[in-house]
Description:
This protein has helices spanning 2-14, 48-60, and strands at 31-32, 65-72, 75-82, 85-93, 98-101. 25% of the residues lie in helices and 30% in strands.
Amino acid sequence: MLKAIFFAIFLSLAIQPVAFAEEGNVTPYGDYCQGCTIYGTCKEVITPRDAVIALDRYYRDKGYRVGTIYHKGRFIEAEIFKNNKEVDKVLFDRKTGRLRSIY
C-alpha cells in the first residue's frame, strides 16, 4: 500500500504540462542576438527599437513571425508565430543579448 502511495505521488510530480513547437526547438536554449558576442555581452544595452529589429530579423530568417511584444525594463517578451499559430514565447535580455524560450 505504501509503495502505491509513493508511486502515485511520484507520477503526479513527474507529469508536468510542457509546450513544444511542432518542428522542434524554435528558440535554442541560451541563443543570442547576432549583434552581440556569443558569450552574451553587448558593448551597450540594446535600445528597445533595435531589440525588436534584431528579434524580427532572427525569427524571419527562420521562417517565423514576431507577434505581440512587451517591454519589461531591460527585458523584452515576445510571442513567436508560424502560420498564425503561436509556437513559442521568448525573453530577450537587452543588456546581454541572450534570448531564451519562456516555455
